[in-house]
C-alpha cells in the first residue's frame, strides 16, 4: 500500500538521485569545456606564432623592392613596373577584367507621373 510515508520516501530518493546525477554531469561538462578552451587557446597561440613570427613561404619568394618618390619622378632605376596601376583610379578602371558597355537597368527616358485623378 501507498502510504504518505512511502510516497514521501520515493520522492526524496528521486530528488536525491536527480541531484547527484546533475552534480556529476555538471562537473563532467565543466571539465570538458575547460579542456576544449585550453586546446583552443593553444591552437590560437600556435597560429599567432606562425602568422606573426614566421614569414610565409609565398612572402619570402617576393622581391623586396622599395620605390622612392624621387627615383620614380627622376626616372631612376627603381621605377614601378609599367603594368602596375595600383593607386590610379583612372588606370584601374581601364584595367577592369570584365568591363560592361551596358548601363544596366537604367531607363532610357525619365519617369513622369500621369496627370489627373487617380481614383476615377
UniProtKB/TrEMBL annotation:
The keyword Transmembrane applies. Residues 62-76 have a biased composition (Polar residues). Residues 35-120 are annotated as: Disordered. The keyword Transmembrane helix applies. InterPro entries: DUF4748 (IPR031833). Keywords: Membrane, Transmembrane, Transmembrane helix. This is Uncharacterized protein.
Amino acid at each position: 500500500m501507498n502510504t504518505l510515508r512511502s510516497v514521501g520516501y520515493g520522492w526524496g530518493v528521486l530528488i536525491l538521485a536527480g541531484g547527484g546525477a546533475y552534480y556529476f554531469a555538471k562537473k563532467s561538462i565543466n571539465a570538458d569545456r575547460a579542456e576544449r578552451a585550453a586546446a583552443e587557446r593553444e591552437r590560437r597561440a600556435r597560429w599567432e606564432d606562425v602568422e606573426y613570427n614566421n614569414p610565409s613561404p609565398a612572402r619570402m619568394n617576393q622581391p623586396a623592392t622599395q620605390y622612392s618618390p624621387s627615383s620614380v619622378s627622376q626616372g631612376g632605376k627603381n621605377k614601378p613596373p609599367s603594368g602596375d596601376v595600383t593607386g590610379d583610379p583612372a588606370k584601374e578602371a581601364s584595367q577592369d577584367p570584365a568591363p560592361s558597355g551596358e548601363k544596366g537597368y537604367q531607363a532610357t527616358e525619365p519617369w513622369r507621373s500621369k496627370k489627373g485623378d487617380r481614383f476615377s
